[in-house]
Amino acid sequence: GTTGSASTTDITVVLFGDAEEITGYQSMVEAFEDENSDISVTLSPVATQDDLMARLTTSFAGGNPPDVFLLNFRRYGQFAAQGAIEPVQSYLDDSEVLDESDFSPRALDAFRYDGDELTCMPQNLSSLVVYYNEDLFDAAGLPYPEQGWAWDDFLAAASELTSGDHYGAGVAPSIIRLAPFVWSNGGEIVDDADRPTTLTLTRDPATREAVDWFLDLQLVHGVVPPDAEEQSESSEARFLRGTLGMYFNSRVAVPTLRTIDGFEWDVAPLPVAPGGEPVSILHSDAYCMSAGLPDQDAAWRFIEFAMNTGGQEILAESGRTVPSRLDVAGSPAFLEPDLPPRSSHVYLDVEPYLRATPRTATWSRVERESNALLEEVFYGRVDREEGLRQLEDSVRPLFDLQVGDDGS
Amino acid sequence: MTQTTRLSAARSGAPPGGRVRESVSGRRPGTRRAVHVLGRFAVPALLAALFAAPLWFMVTGSLRPAGLPPPRTLEILPPEPTLAAYTRLPELMPLFTYLGNSALVVAIAVPVTVVVAGLTGFGIRLLSRTARRRVLVGLLVVLLVPVTAVWATRFEVFRLAGVVDTFIPLLAPALLAVSPFLILLYAWSFGGIPESQLQAARLEGASWLAIWRRLAMPQVRPATLAVAVLAFTFHWANFIDPLLYLHSGDRYTLPLGLQFLRLLNPTDWPLLMAGCVIATLPCAVVFLFAQRILLSDDPLAALRGGRR
Amino acid sequence: MTAPEVAPPDTPRRARSDRTLSGWAFLAPYGLAVAVLIALPALLNVGYAFTDHTGLTRDPQFIGLDNVQRLTSDTFFRDSVEASLFHVAVSVPLRLIAAVGLALLLAAPRPGGRWFRTAVYLPTVIPDVALAVLFLWVLNPLYGPLNQLLGLFGHSGFNWLADPSTARVGVVLMLLFPIGEGFIVVLAARRMLDGRLYEAAALEGCGPFGQLRRLTLPLLAPVLILLAVRDTILTLQVNFVPAYVLTDGRPANATLYLPVYIFDQAFEFSGFAYAALITIVLMVITATIIVAQLLAVRRWRILR
Amino acid sequence: MSGGLTGARNGDGRSGGAGIRLEKLSKSYGRVRALDGVDLDVPAGELVTLVGPSGSGKSTILRLIAGLDRPDGGRVLVGGQDVGELPPHRRSVAMVFQDYALYPHLSVLENLLFGMRVRKVPRAEARRRAHDAAARLGISDLLERHPDQMSGGQRQRVALARAVVREPSVYLLDEPLASLDAQLRITTRADLLALHRQLGTTTVHVTHDQAEAMTLGDRVVVVHEGRVRQEGPPQEVYDEPVDTFVARFLGSPPMNLVAGGGVLGGEPETIVGLRPEDLALDADGPIEASAEAVETLGNEAVLLARCLDGTRLTARTEPRLRIRPGDAVRLRAIPGRLHRFDAGTGRRL
Amino acid sequence: MSGGLTGARNGDGRSGGAGIRLEKLSKSYGRVRALDGVDLDVPAGELVTLVGPSGSGKSTILRLIAGLDRPDGGRVLVGGQDVGELPPHRRSVAMVFQDYALYPHLSVLENLLFGMRVRKVPRAEARRRAHDAAARLGISDLLERHPDQMSGGQRQRVALARAVVREPSVYLLDEPLASLDAQLRITTRADLLALHRQLGTTTVHVTHDQAEAMTLGDRVVVVHEGRVRQEGPPQEVYDEPVDTFVARFLGSPPMNLVAGGGVLGGEPETIVGLRPEDLALDADGPIEASAEAVETLGNEAVLLARCLDGTRLTARTEPRLRIRPGDAVRLRAIPGRLHRFDAGTGRRL
Ligand SMILES: Nc1ncnc2c1ncn2[C@@H]1O[C@H](COP(=O)(O)OP(=O)(O)OP(=O)(O)O)[C@@H](O)[C@H]1O
Ligand SMILES: Nc1ncnc2c1ncn2[C@@H]1O[C@H](COP(=O)(O)OP(=O)(O)OP(=O)(O)O)[C@@H](O)[C@H]1O
Ligand SMILES: [Mg+2]
Ligand SMILES: [Mg+2]
């Protein structure tokens, strides 16, 4: 808590990330403390988002929540629904440092829990993209993917690249990987984006078409590594080793991919459905403040610093994040022409088309269970029709679950 | 001294596999020898190898060069063993800080565990029969409470005590002797000390605490050794308590660090195995020191051997 | 020092109670720790089971038996109970048999015996998280040593963690290795048996197998029961960290053991009160199994 | 040495010690009545042997004197002072247990020092006393050994030495010879006696071996079922047992007891007793019998004879008899050596 | 009963049993040479007592006969047949251990049935034999108890009963009386003897108690340091010990041995022995001494005397002497009872 002595205030910041990300946050905290000698920050990192949830629940339940914590937009609904988060809207409105218009509207919209007031400050604006191995494309005589390429182009390239222990594409079977394809095809993954009551993978024809296309990659065309192969060597490891043509991931992968020195690689937008839109899915984490603490001032000053140019640049330099501040995102600090990927603008080009999944209190659970069942279908462990039906059926009750006073 | 040797021989018994069976079997010498060697060495060696195998895979897996896909056939040793994975570990995380924190926690928690378990076990020894039975039922109930039931609610206690984000919550299991099982281990061992010894010491003016410290504890050193090893393993491997009750990154312990590692690349096996080796090594070393006594044919005799 | 002239009124039993008092005094630190760190939190937790506490706010409301109602229609909970029961039914006997069998086999003094015992104990020192990571590797369908071993016998192996039944077997297999504690206890107990009894039995015509069946096992019965009870609790409640890391409930809830589900509910899904209720169920299940075990072996005179 | 009864000891702290007096001592363990009104007086400096069958309450008496248990009723006086409220270690009492209760993890020297260490006796003083005691008991060259490296007899002496270093007013010895083998028991018995002569400290020695009781004590106290049956000098108790229990308990083989007198002659309503050594083989003896067995003991033999009326008698005889089982023999009771007891109460008439 | 030596037993399976013959038996445990060429012959039906100090190898002999250990050299013959290759349970040998080795988890009845159950004796037959044996040893009313609910003497009888149900050719008893108290030992000794008379089975009885050895056996075998020192009827061994070891070992108090003869008269280079009972108090005796101690045993007393030249002698005397320590006494050796041994080898001359 903010148990400060007369001169300095202590705040605790809980974040998640891998070792390298944490180093980035560390240097940002140091820069902040240099500028604000009256605030001392305890940086409290955890590895996974699961660990983060455990940490946050314990400290909220124990009455000692952190001042600032980082949450993915797919999880904050759970907290927001119970009023555990102090909305930042009023702070942002009063701020002399930050201005709402500096930030990506798509990212901000994702964090308006009631659709109106801003709940948390999104710090990044990542999205799903395609990383591809230029050397493999060259060897196969394929053109590099470009803006607006279509599903068929993608499939053709993937098939061409698949041979022996080489696979054309790597993608994790999960809702957030599947969703942009559905949206691109004009479908929806839930019946109502604001008050969803069920997944719509089977009932909406456009959705179903996209789902089948996605599943066919593995089940029919075999351009995605099968189950056992994926467990033995992740797609990322394959891509690093140069035996995977294309790899779907968000910006997160970049620091790791930068360790590649055996071949050239770049990033491309998602392929577009026939006659569809170049949609992608938002990946964004935001700084939230705990509700009910006596003094939010220090916490807000930390967020201000992190969201301001200086803070955003420090993180952008790690290569891992796409800054949510559009001015920083457009600056060399992010675009960095001397380090791969050359085409970082791809992340920014898609910004107007970014969409987000529902942000209800139980969404993270829905996603979790769906992913487990989708994996069963994707790797052919269960029959496709049966599997998808089961997926919808078993997940449907989760939409109705009440968490706190939400939904009543 | 003949008396002594015979006594200790009787104490260690003649287990069925040993001397007795050897002379019992009445088959022809050749077959008997074959069966004998098989029973005495081949089968145990096979089982021992089976149990050692996962550790072996762990070590050899960590010695493979990074980035290469693992072999698809069984290999006893990687073709070009390398320590590359180990040198990468400290680059990826503050390995030595984590190790230092873990060491500090263990250095405090293990003695505390031994003292609490020892005191409690001795207390049980002193109680009357009926009281003892009641305490044992109580211990069973304590054992019954799932750990998950207290994780979050304990935080409240720690917050009220103002010890969140210190190492003190990590000592909580030590104050609980890690598990009632360790207390039982002590109670059981203390049961072997004859009543007359306690009374003799009382007569000589020793307080119960002095009796515990000077008489009881020194006599159950194998139990202490066992408790210490088990406690070491527990505290060293403790993942949940640091996750929930530690906040400052620079106080983190090794298991939390291992978690960061897993996130980096879930199939970078050499790196993961190296992390596992580092996490396991201290426990293994501690245990290897203890096994000399703990697992010898006659632990008491082995202890005495160390004493002279 | 002179003796007091008059005896105080309650002279009798003071010497005895001096000892009893000391006994309780020795138990006091532990008792205090139990009260503060287990009893209090656990009671709090039981209280929460009948509220709408989510873990994120601090004003839980009493909602009566709503959570119980929810429990009755929760298919995940049903899966979870089934997974746990399967696990206990398979894992506990196997772990016991392994620990007891190995301890008895390796108890006899023999050259190098210590190293055989050490090998059996060693997997027990592997930290939980490391054990799980290690088994992710061991059970790997393509590179995993287990499938490669099966390959030597011409079997194509399994995709262990992908299939519900093999995933369960995989977890059981993993937990079959850290049996060192039971192993060591049986070893110690076996050493304390009187070698003379075995000679007497041999003289009466009892072979090694008969000695095992008629002497060793009945004599070790109290220890075995203690281990069974402890292992039941451990398997149901504590051993979940490796399972959590290895499979995290997948596939198809096959390994969604109760503690994993409790953890998910309490810490991931903001179902703090609901998790508290499942915790109570878990305790009841555990206690039931233990009582059943104790009743089943009542005639062995272990409580003598 | 701190507190306790040191004041009751005389000058050099070596001779005499304190007398013990038990008054109406009673004690029950649950429903078992271990002691049932025991009165006993042990003058300072005397060695008294408590003898009785197993379970008769001998150990309980010692435990009450030492303060390890509290009596349900009655008083314990040491040196004339009621020690009811004194904890064990302030009673200036040293006890030697049947199993010696040596501390197995300590060397002999450390065993001797243990008590003084916990009582904070200065180091030099403690070592001096330990070495003194060791020398006195002839174990000076065992000081570095551990208990399990010694023979029973050696352990026994260490246990005694540990009692000696306390310089107590009273020694309580609970069957200290029971776990020694026959040969060793005899020599250690002599050592014990010698020690008592040297120190002259009040000593209560418990045994269930009647031979030990006879040879050791200035006085012997026969205990049975929680009561003192008889006390007195050994020979006196042997010669004039107060009842049939004592008569049979002391002496081996035990006294022949014939209800109603039978072949020994006597009134009905009485039991007549005759010790085996008082029954002689005599070709003209009045008692006709046939030999049943002859147990040869080297220096003597025990003849088991069955009289014509079926009474069995044992007689102690010369060793080199040529009597075979079945032979007819004649016996004579040495006159004046008959004991008469009441058939109802068993008490001596 | 399966296999083994039943053939060697005669008709009714009750009398005689099989003779035992040990030839040049030797056995080492590590560096300890437990047996060093033991030759022994036990005729069928005889009861032989093995006696010797602790560690002399008595138990080892039994273990080799039973087949619990294998000899390093030499042969064991039972009923004339080399049993070297037979496992213990085919040797038709029953053993009673010093600590009884009753199965603590079984009731007395189950203890008795145990061996017959593993040997697949029909149920009814087994129960009959168990009840028979129990009746024979007077433990019929203890059948439902567990070993920890019985006294030492009762356990002892159960152990014997367990041996009896086997109906073996040979009984091996390893100090079965050692853990009993003195009173119980005497009565159980008688029971044992009676049992042997009834069954007439070859029996080897081990003890370190010389009194037991003297009274029990048809023959006594004295073992020392892994060798048989002497064997023969008890009285013969007592009267003519072959060396000083046997001389001192049998008899209590032990024989007086005076190197060079001294006050007893004799040549140098010899040791002269005299049993305490052969040394009489005699006012005109040639040996002047002063009394050191008198141990009264009720029926007799032992006088410890120190002669003028410092030699200590013990004499067995009348009980009611009025001699005090320090009194001057005169002693006389009964002529013809002197034993002479070679001073170098200790062997009888
Ligand atoms: N702690 C105890 N709890 C219950 N009963 C006891 C206890 N101590 C002694 N007794 C009982 O009190 C009686 C007297 O016991 P005590 O030990 O004084 O006998 P003892 O004469 O010393 O016998 P022994 O010669 O066998 O040592 C016995 O019946 C015994 O069973
Ligand atoms: N299992 C064994 N291992 C090592 N030494 C042994 C073993 N058994 C006996 N010995 C040694 O062999 C010698 C003879 O032992 P044994 O048990 O035959 O003696 P004993 O005459 O029966 O003695 P006691 O009267 O003490 O029983 C002793 O020195 C003993 O220490
Ligand atoms: Mg006693
Ligand atoms: Mg022996």
Automatic annotation (TrEMBL), chain B:
Domain of life: Bacteria
CC terms in the record's Gene Ontology section: plasma membrane
Boundaries of every ABC transmembrane type-1 domain copy: 99-290
Subcellular locations according to the entry: Cell membrane
Transmembrane segments: 37-59, 98-123, 135-155, 167-188, 223-246, 269-290
GO BP of this protein: transmembrane transport
Stored Pfam families: BPD_transp_1 (PF00528)
Membrane topology: Multi-pass membrane protein
Key words of the record: Cell membrane, Membrane, Transmembrane, Transmembrane helix, Transport
Main location class: membrane
Disordered: annotated span: 1-28
Family named by the database record: Belongs to the binding-protein-dependent transport system permease family.
Name by which UniProt lists this protein: Carbohydrate ABC transporter permease
Protein's organism: Phytoactinopolyspora alkaliphila
Taxonomic path: Bacteria, Bacillati, Actinomycetota, Actinomycetes, Jiangellales
TrEMBL record, chain C:
Membrane topology term: Multi-pass membrane protein
Any GO CC annotation of this UniProt entry: plasma membrane
Organism, scientific name: Phytoactinopolyspora alkaliphila
Domain ABC transmembrane type-1: 81-291
Primary residence: membrane
InterPro entries membership: ABC_transporter_permease, MetI-like, MetI-like_sf
Source species, domain of life: Bacteria
Subcellular localization: Cell membrane
Protein name per UniProt: Sugar ABC transporter permease
Record-linked Pfam families: BPD_transp_1
Protein family according to the UniProt entry: Belongs to the binding-protein-dependent transport system permease family.
CDD domains associated with the record: TM_PBP2
Keyword hit for Transport: yes
SUPFAM superfamilies per record: MetI-like (SSF161098)
GO BP: any one term: transmembrane transport
Keyword Disulfide bond: no
Membrane-spanning parts: 21-44, 85-107, 119-139, 169-189, 219-240, 272-297
Entry keywords, A to Z: Cell membrane, Membrane, Transmembrane, Transmembrane helix, Transport
From TrEMBL, chains D, E:
Domain ABC transporter: 20-250
Record keywords, A-Z: ATP-binding, Cell membrane, Membrane, Nucleotide-binding, Translocase, Transport
Listed GO MF terms: ABC-type transporter activity; ATP binding; ATP hydrolysis activity
Domain of life: Bacteria
Keyword Zinc-finger part of the UniProt annotation: no
GO cellular component assignments: ATP-binding cassette (ABC) transporter complex, substrate-binding subunit-containing
InterPro entries membership: AAA+_ATPase (IPR003593), ABC_transporter-like_ATP-bd (IPR003439), ABC_transporter-like_CS (IPR017871), ABC_transpr_MalK/UgpC-like (IPR047641), Mo/tungstate-bd_C_term_dom (IPR008995), NA-bd_OB-fold (IPR012340), P-loop_NTPase (IPR027417), Transp-assoc_OB_typ2 (IPR013611)
Record's protein name: ABC transporter ATP-binding protein
